[in-house]
Amino acid sequence: MVVAVERLITSDILKPARYLGNELLAVHKPWDTTAIHWVLTYPEVYEVGASNLGHIILYNILNAQPRQLCDRAYLPGKDLAAKLRETNTPLFAVESKRSLTEFDILGFSLSYELGATNILEMLDLARIPLTWRERQGGRGAEEQGGRGELTDTQSCFPLIFAGGQTATSNPEPYADFFDFFALGDGEELLPEIGLVLEEGKQAGLSREDILLDLAQIPGVYVPQFYYMAEDGSVHPCRPDVPKRILRRVATPIPAYSIGLVPYVETVHDRLSIEIRRGCTRGCRFCQPGMLTRPARDVEPDKVVEAIEQGMRATGYNEFSLLSLSCSDYLSLPAVGMEIKNRLKNENISLTLPSQRVDRFDENIASILGGTRQGGLTFAPEAGTQRMRDIVNKGLTNEELLRGVKTAWEQGWDKIKLYFMIGLPGETDADVVGIAETVSWLQRECRGNGRKPLNFNLTISNFTPKPHTPFQWHSVSTVEFKRKQNLLRQEFRRIKAVKVNFTDVRISAMEDFVGRGDRNLSKVVRLAWELGAGMDSWYENLDRAFSAWGSAIAQAGLDWKYRQVENGEWNLFHAEAQKGREAEDQRSREAEDNTPLSTHSLDMPLPWDHIDTGIDKKWLQEDLQRALEAAIVPDCSFEGCSHCGVCGIDFGHNIVIESPAIPKFAGEFVPNTTKAQRLRVWFGKQGNMALMSHLDLIRLFDRVVRRAGLPIAFTGGFHPMPRISLATALALGATSSGEIADFELTVPVEVNTFREKLTREMPTDIPIYNVEQIDLKASAATQLLETAEYLITVAALAETTPIQWQNWIDTIKAKEELWYEQITKSGKSQLINLRDRLFELELVETHNHKAESMSSVIRYLGSYRQDGLLLRPEQILFMLETVANVEFQLLHIHRNRLILGV
Fold first, then answer.
1. Strand partners, 852
2. Distances in Å between the alpha carbon of 288 and those of 18, 142, 332?
3. At residue 698, what are phi and psi to the nearest 5 degrees?
4. C-alpha–C-alpha distance, residues 79 and 13, integer Å
5. pLDDT tens track for 54-85
6. Is 212 helix (H, G, I), strand (E, B) or coil?
7. Least buried of 174, 593, 607, 710, by fewest C-beta within 10 Å?
8. How far, in Å, are 42, 794, 805, 856 from residue 844 at the CA level?
């Protein structure tokens, strides 16, 4: 069933272009000629999901498979969600506009502990039962004593699975909701799943048999084939599934990163290319570093090729090189300089995520930014050398200063720094050390007549993660609050520093859910029912915390949550209890740093059945090394740390030596030459009517880049392309008379310009005419005089065509129709609308609803940029004045803009 979205996606909802599915490079495969239909469903708003690199890569890979189709869906905004429920309309995929229940398989990205409530919201909006038991229609293994056979019931619902970092690290809190989990990298795993589904579908296999076949694929975990023991550990409930499920590892392929250029501005509104997957630095708090080993470099020439092709294909003016630790990609300076040289005339900027400050040097500084120098982010994590050694950061004070000072000397006046509090073994001196370190860096970066170096700090609360050496540790919320207050006092004395703290309530919730077992599935569901959702967004924290707290209490697990709040969900606490009994006079702080017993660390954990490749014994040993502040070197560049990853199942580190750094060809110099000026008349039709004016400006910039047109730039610090739209059009309105001016650096034949522009434009933005105008002519926006509109208006009462014509004639006969207008300064002003109306005509009438009639009215009115405008809404005011009837504006179409001489 194709959903009638035209009645839902209208201009009255926020950013309706989110839901159109017509982005550049979107893949539209025929439904009937494909065997398996996927939906990649990202449980966040479109702006977040559509720019997620993993989402783009897997979308492209699945659509590259024969007989497989992949569509997309995102968490709708509150306004559209309300419309879906009010109209009893199921959530749909954005490209095909089909209900999600029509697809064979739905894959959710689960990358955040509290993000599952958004997934439940999407399932509910799609009218899909929330749990695998409900979808299956039978009873699960645990309901039949934990080891019974599953009821073999056919289901009309798609298979629901999750992947992502959180799903890979500990899927148990979410086990009730998913038919299976895809663990680790998905580039090779998802096509294998698709083949098994296709074979099972052709053979007419039952849902259970298909899931059993899927469970044989390395990397697929089917929770219903496993049961949870009393101690929280997970075991198979049948002999034909593996005891431990292997995390999948794949080699990144940059070419699949090119795709999906949204028409709305997204969170990461740029081309993103992965240069290195995995990190072997061994930071003991870092789950991604443990879950993505081994480290795999991408060949430099493939990175360069992907960036150059991607920038030409997308029209972006910015690209980003991504990795958990970009600076550990040895070819970074060479790749960055090569791209900077190749695209030096196109005003392109490079951004990097958080970098290793110890590797930041002049070579990396020289490739960043462009004419738009971006921000710079480092993550020292701790304020003292002792704490950085405990977490195995591998960063000295000297290296920290050298990196920050290099940035300052290279022109950066503001730097963002990340720190954590609540790490194992932390004292108040270590907490205060954060402020002391920032103050010291400021003192060292003074002089040369420059202002003090500004810092933007984010201080987060350490949250223990599964599969890390610190998975056995936690801190009480009271301690977090005390340490935050301690830092607030310290930073009051330091200028030019902005400090942001993470909310301790959400940190505790993340800890509670992230290290939980299957019992937490009922908490997740209750939290969603009580209103939790979008929990990572600041404005929803109070509501989220209230919902999660109530859910935990209703599930009878508040005693367990109090353990987290009190910092007792850790073996440091257990050892401290033993220490107090044995030696009463020793302090709690000393006990927390005593060697941990092997027996306590060997207690089963809910995620022990997930084989990430890292030996649990190695994690135990590394925790002991942490308490001794012992450093483990990076095995990508030094000796093996014997973590257990490298081997047949997971491969080995791939480190590629850097090629020579190309000679710098010079910065982008904006070409301000104005050799030709072209005026373009274009339309805005169909779905493009739901694109905002700012998005349209961004589209023109990208179209010109893709077309390779020699656009001129403005001068100054932020050069902009010389493209000028005459005026904005209301969201939802269509047009056949818009105007834009283009200034070029070299003359281009008019027909050639039109052909290139048309080729890159969406079909719903037709190009009607292109004319060359004098270089000294005034801009179209300065010449606007009048505008002609066709407006569709409905009367909210029974009317006749004769009445409509009489109202039109009455308006035309009047010399004055006064209207109260509120100026920008808030003052009331009376204006005579009749002076601004030049032509008015009834074009046609037709029945709108049972007892009402709508009409199409053409009018020509003033449209000057000095404020003398006649808006479509003011035509309604005139009608209501003369008719004493209420009217509704159904549609606006701008026929043409008329320029003065």
1. 849
2. 30, 32, 21
3. -65, -35
4. 6
5. 999 999 999 999 999 999 999 999 999 999 99
6. helix
7. 593
8. 45, 12, 10, 5
